[in-house]
Design goal:
The structure is a homotetramer of 399-residue chains. By secondary structure, the first copy, chain A, is α+β, with helices and mostly antiparallel strands. Chain A has three domains: 16-123, Acyl-CoA dehydrogenase/oxidase, N-terminal domain (Butyryl-Coa Dehydrogenase, subunit A, domain 1, Orthogonal Bundle), CATH 1.10.540; 125-219, Butyryl-CoA Dehydrogenase, subunit A, domain 2 (Beta Barrel); 231-389, Butyryl-CoA Dehydrogenase, subunit A, domain 3 (Up-down Bundle), CATH 1.20.140. Helices cover 51% and strands 12% of the residues of chain A. In chain A, the strands form two sheets. In chain A, strands 1-4-5-8 form a four-stranded mixed β-sheet, with helices on one face. At the C-D interface, helix 10, helix 11 and helix 12 of C face helix 10, helix 11 and helix 12 of D.
């Protein structure tokens, strides 16, 4: 990759962890186009992630991890997403599960699970989809029996452990627990078939009378949500914002390189190089004004997340709500940047750039699939409500 | 397909030819998602087109054809594109080659070639790409020898005859002729590999010392372009505009049906059906305001084309130029409608609609590939020049 | 005005009535900038309108009028609005009141009122605002007593007659009647103070125990609305669409002339004339793609309106509903064209074009004020509902 | 003003200087609507600015000023622009002249002029327009004679001193000097008549054989521009960006307050308050996503400016160029925010909000006039060139 504008793609002098991230991204990039085409489970690349040591990136140093702040971990998600947004998602959601342990779990759970994760290079997946209530939890003497099915279980296939949610009818609420993926009765299906983000292993998990012991329950049913606990959805939203942004940055860089190396000027342009075409320059400037602000706001929100995360139980609902506004703003901008750059780059690069060998359509396809996680219109609504009356977004799994 | 708003998708009571078109579209629709996924040459579906009799749609009745006006033929392209824009392109470009014969050829060529096409159900392809000058023509006693290579030869594979252009160095101009695809020295490659419009057979054609007899030269090198002859690029541009529009209409209808039959309301919407969500209604209204005007302007331009086509050699440069403005306006609107509906529909249909089984991404992919035929920015420029000073677009292969 | 692109501003060879409209527009244009600045009642210009004979434009020939079809009358509104959208509104709403007489009134009312209007060159205004229910009607032996206040009474000041609505509590519905503006108890205030459309005389009318005899009641309270009667709101909406469009066309033409005659190229452009700047050409092309489709759809809708108007009581709810969709589509496009051209033209014309002597800001101000008549978001909603499920817009005073 | 969302309008706990700025803004706000209507020279309000002490805001403490960093001075411009963007411009350009002294002047000039400015509360204006070359400088024994005319001289009327540029034919370059506004031969005209930013006193200045002594020449003709000297145009551009942003914030706050206090829900909305309308909430969220990123990027750029300004002669061309990119990005976003919020707010507030008593059109008018300082398309071009190839914007008076 040739030299890129400093402020867009090159982070400030990286601390060590991001060196490893860049190295991993370079590894993933070499096969990304082919793997996007064929989809399926990326066992080899997941092994590369495991070997990079980056599964311990967000784990506190005291528990054997790299102790990276959240803004650094989010930056890692973004860097990986430039090269391969499917595996960046698997990586990001691994750290989301670790965030869940830190936010929901008691001190002993935190210590045991995080430490084991660092030591054994455990890869976490999830079976948490809160809109899918087909998985039920029934109390037993020593925990719960989990039974049913969950869709959209990103990272479940190939994982060591899972975060699991199940509907508890008596309290009309969900519990959240953790389980080894190999637990009896858990079946992870490779049935994810979206047209983008193909290697996120986001298929179905079924639970056939699975025992969840009390010690592995992070959030019991009926537990009132604290401001701290509800930070988790902001971690999730900000992982997604950074993922979209990585896609936008990757698409932007791909357009830039193609224009420099391969594109021909349009016959009617009167210029010698495509990059001298005033319309190409103007459009690229427009795309820049989509990407750059999204970067700035995602970084700001990442730092705020880190600050509130570090406050632990002392975080207030007001702080949590203002973070949610900052995150929603960044996510909306990143969403638009990813979709518009992923689609608009072709107006610049032209007909020959649609050859499958470049795989440039994957930016739009990956962004398109992932940005549907929750509807952008409800983000605009939440931002509008806040701007109109200071109303904080209601804490949900999506806001 | 359930009932659709009258003005969007249902043409006025169709004359017979469009009945056949709708029937053919229905046939193509049944396998469109699968064929889009696998790409390759659609031999069976090309046979269906041939059997439909619609290859003679635009051929004058006197020459054995259906004698449809251009606005009807363009409507046919649009209807087919709703179901399968790749085969709609092959179909449309077949008729474009017939237009070329009518606009460039002498009376005898017109009669012979059009009549044979009707009688033998010939399928025409092209090897015409005017920006690819690697194919040379050298004069011989009785015509020319053609030698070289052409890219982007839509419909060449599987065709009976080809329109061919070749660069003639002495006059620094191109000749245009026709040849049976089986002519000695012509090789048609199946090397088209774009991520959309996969079954347009738009690969490479090579010419190895191919003899083009004078009788098959439609436009000799150095012939000054007449207003009539340069109508051909307007036929091409308007075929594309209708193709984009068919994609937009197809995507619009797909979103509508999915929303009616499959979509679930967002949990925070407070409504019982996705179609009751005010944001869904509003966005769908916005998409409507992209599709509907493009339809109106494409239809207007089609009628103007027919009128000028019928004038034959009497058409003036001013008339041709004003048609070009009307066509460019329609094409820009159709371009935007196809891209924006093809990408934007997902904001309405949501995460579950990205399953490969629906194939909804093909609208964007097909539109994205095809709308790069020539840069939209130069259309805006041409429209601006006209609006600023009445300057007519320069007659080129693209304007 | 120098020659303009044929399809944008020059209607097809005009029948006689439009000659008079163009002449009137030219008269209004000479003082439009100054009158916009100072606002107030345009007594002199209203006299010019009266003298032009165009107040009888839409009146059937049998009743002494010009018998123009609605698409012609709407075209007149548009032409006047290019020069002076405030007086175009007064003119358009005059014809709207005549439409109301034709749609609501009985045969005798129609004959008497239309004939008198033609003969005496009556100028009609309105006191109809359906959202302002502060005017009450109470039954008397021979009609009603009207008491209260109405806001947004366009054209009332300086009018000969008024259409009036009043709330009838017993039937919880409004009546509609007509009254000479000089009727005892009617006071028309010159209190309209919006920042645009300043000379529309859209102030307040007060009714102090005004007697409305039965013979002047067009629509009695509680009368069930027929499809024919509810055509009136479509006449109103289409007058507005054409008015917005006239503003857009006027702004477009102003930009074009300024660029040709006055603008200087930007120092960094490297071109000799502003009109050679590729960014100027591109932007002007973009504005064209806003104006041109709005024109096409407004014209289509105008012809449909005329067809349904002519059907009288035979018009069906389905026909009326499909007209409402066509009108809403045209209105949304015209709205956007007026706002975007009115604001965007300055990116082309530059700093010096903001001198008050040109008055170019009046396009945006006039469009901005008038496009708020009813919220565009509810138009998008209505269009979306129709596109989603064929739901026709609910007949209201605005849809 | 009721409580506003924290991140949009309320800066972090302000240091003392911003307290004075807020107080001044509150003073200006009380008469802003009326003064916008009537235009003219705001002698009284300029006196208020002078009395506030804020003319010394950016002057180093060592020279008797408040020693505020540039990001603080820019914040002051923004805060004032919320209330009155015309006087904010006069205020901002005063500080721009001081920046010019610091960047161009020698140590003695800096000390003398800045100190006098602080002590005597001098108000600076300019006669600098680099595109207007009608003012000539001819060398004399002890300086230059200045002769000619300058347009767009913001802040000249009512100023104590002027920065002046004049064209020097021999070196084909401009000199820059300073002069008391009362100097013999200088005439400042009150001929500014734009439809917005009415009280910026941006009229014409004429020079009738005015003597400019050498001691008052800041930049002699032919002096090669240093990276430090060319920082001045970035100060100017960033003042403008903050001014646009202040307009956007002011419009946003005005919409918010009107919606809370005055607006009525649309009859078809089915909600009790306008702020509960989902379309209102959604649109307001969209406007938020225009304003918020512009704020973040303007603040970032302001801090970078301060850092480079403080480096003095050590600033490099690369640093200056990257600052220019950051400033251009912020300016483009602020431009769009000001125009789009200034025009779009009315879709939310509705017809009644167009009464002249609110003066809400002034946001669009002020933004429209001021954002034409230099064409936004050349900013997009510059950003595109940088993004494509790392090309830094050419240092000019505008980039």
């Amino acid at each position: 990759m040739s030299a890129l504008p400093a402020t867009l793609l090159q982070p400030p002098p990286p601390p060590d962890p991001l060196d490893a991230v860049h190295a991993l991204a370079a590894q993933l990039a070499t096969t990304a186009v082919g793997r996007d085409r064929h989809g399926g489970h990326a066992a080899h690349e997941r092994a590369l992630i495991r070997e990079s040591g980056l599964l311990a990136l967000s784990i506190p140093a005291a528990d054997g991890g790299a102790g990276a702040a959240w803004d650094v971990t989010l930056r890692a998600v973004r860097i990986l997403a430039r090269a391969d947004s499917a595996l960046a998602h698997v990586f990001g959601f691994h750290h989301l599960q670790l965030a869940g342990i830190a936010l929901y779990g008691n001190a002993s759970q935190q210590r045991d699970l995080l430490r084991r994760t660092a030591e054994e290079r455990l890869f976490w997946g999830n079976a948490l989809n809160p809109l899918d209530k087909r998985t039920a939890a029934i109390e037993t003497a020593d925990g719960f029996v989990i039974d049913g099915i969950k869709s959209f279980c990103s990272g479940a296939l190939g994982s060591s452990w899972l975060t699991v949610s199940a509907w508890h009818a008596r309290t009309a609420s969900a519990l959240i627990g953790v389980l080894p993926t190999t637990t009896d009765g858990i079946t992870v299906r490779g049935d994810w078939d979206a047209f983008g983000q193909k290697q996120t292993d986001s298929g179905t998990v079924t639970f056939d009378r699975v025992l969840l012991p009390s010690a592995l329950v992070l959030l019991p049913p009926g537990a009132p949500p604290t401001a701290q606990a509800t930070l988790r959805s902001q971690v999730a939203q900000l992982i997604m914002a950074n993922l979209y942004l990585g896609i936008a940055e990757g698409a932007f860089a791909a357009a830039r390189e193609y224009l420099a190396d391969e594109a021909r000027p349009w016959f009617a342009s009167g210029v010698a190089a495509a990059t001298d075409d005033p319309f190409v320059q103007h459009r690229f400037g427009e795309l820049w004004t989509l990407v750059r602000p999204a970067e700035a706001l995602a970084d700001d929100a990442g730092r705020t997340l880190q600050r509130l995360f570090a406050k632990g139980a002392a975080v207030t609902a007001q702080e949590r709500g203002e973070l949610a506004v900052a995150v929603a703003t960044a996510k909306v901008l990143a969403h638009r940047a990813a979709i518009d750059v992923g689609s608009g780059l072709f107006e610049l690069t032209g007909a020959r750039s649609t050859s499958a060998k470049y795989g440039f359509d994957r930016y739009w396809r990956n962004a398109r699939v992932h940005t549907l996680h929750d509807p952008v219109d409800y983000k605009y609504r939440d931002l509008g409500r806040y701007a109109l009356a200071g109303t904080l977004p209601e804490p949900t799994a999506y806001s």
